[in-house]
Write a structure and sequence with these properties.
Elements lengths: L8 H29 L3 H17 L3 H19 L7 H15 L1
């Protein structure tokens, strides 16, 4: 009989893979928003570099760091009432980050 798939290792690996895919998707979305609003070219450049690095080595730490920086920037721009940065966008971004960091 085949080995049980409920040993805990396979789901954990699938979860990690899913989380990596989700952080990549979120990072691309955040980068597009930064570009469309022409905010912080340095952060855009660093996030692009981290995406390339992540695609090479699969380590998401840099993506999390830069998406968190972008979140803080979006909050700052929201308080300035920058066109294109809405409370809904910032709230959705925070929810997504929270679900990935759990």
């Amino acid at each position: 009989m085949a080995k049980s798939q409920t040993n805990g290792k396979a789901p954990a690996k699938a979860k990690a893979s899913s989380t990596n895919s989700d952080i990549e998707t979120l990072s691309v979305s955040v980068l597009q928003k930064l570009k469309s609003l022409e905010l912080d070219p340095q952060l855009q450049s660093e996030l692009e570099w981290c995406l390339g690095s992540f695609r090479y080595d699969g380590q998401p730490a840099g993506l999390f760091h830069h998406v968190l920086r972008a979140r803080d920037l979006f909050k700052e721009e929201l308080s300035k009432k920058t066109k294109g940065v809405t409370a809904k966008y910032v709230g959705d971004l925070e929810k997504e980050l929270e679900s990935l960091l759990q």
